[in-house]
Structures are given as structure tokens and as C-alpha cells.
Amino acid sequence: MSDLPACPKCQSVYTYEDAGNYICPECAHEWSTVAVEASDDVRVIKDANGNELNDGDTVTVIKDLKIKGTSLVVKVGTKVKGIRLVDGDHDIDCKIDGIGAMKLKSEFVKKA
């Protein structure tokens, strides 16, 4: 059997690929192969407890975090509102009151 996806419109398994598009011979629906490949790469970011994080969530820091190059520390229990998820090692982009903009690792926060 082929590895091609079923038709999203009629669920037919007889799809074929032609010039960068998938085509369904039963209902004549066409869709891009790029859209299907991009949807397979959805990255799920989870907090320290395994809860899924989303943009705009409020999180709480679970460990004292020293800020490199300064004497500042983000204390345990600090609430961070309106996070943004980004790609990379530090996958949370946020603004902490009294400290400013910074990036955090999701393993050091829990969803509030």
C-alpha cells in the first residue's frame, strides 16, 4: 500500500501525487503536498508536569533561576503572564516584571 494520505474531503485511499499536489480520483479534490508535510511537524511544548502549553498562557517558575551575567534571580513562584512559544532550546519567550524580556525553558515552569 502507498504512504499517501487519504483524501480530506471524501476519505478515499486512492489518492495520487502530481506536480506537487495530491489528487483524489473519486471526488477530484486537490491539495498541496507542502501543507500535509507542514502539519506533520507540529511541535508540542509541555511544562514540568506534562501539561501542554499554548501562546498566552500564564505559568509559574518552579525553581530559582539565576540570570547569566547579572546578580538577578527569578524566584520560585514567580508568575509569568502571556508567554509566547518559540523554537529553540529556550522555548518560552516572555516578559518578567522587574527583570524584563527573557527566554525560559519549559522544564522549569508549570501551567498556572
UniProtKB/TrEMBL annotation:
<comment type="similarity">
    <text>Belongs to the YjdM family.</text>
</comment>
<dbReference type="Pfam" id="PF08274">
    <property type="entry name" value="Zn_Ribbon_YjdM"/>
</dbReference>
<dbReference type="InterPro" id="IPR013988">
    <property type="entry name" value="YjdM_C"/>
</dbReference>
<feature type="domain" description="Protein YjdM C-terminal">
    <location>
        <begin position="45"/>
        <end position="112"/>
    </location>
</feature>
<feature type="domain" description="Protein YjdM N-terminal">
    <location>
        <begin position="4"/>
        <end position="32"/>
    </location>
</feature>
<dbReference type="InterPro" id="IPR013987">
    <property type="entry name" value="YjdM_N"/>
</dbReference>
<dbReference type="InterPro" id="IPR004624">
    <property type="entry name" value="YjdM"/>
</dbReference>
<protein>
    <submittedName>
        <fullName>Zinc ribbon domain-containing protein YjdM</fullName>
    </submittedName>
</protein>
<dbReference type="Pfam" id="PF03831">
    <property type="entry name" value="YjdM"/>
</dbReference>
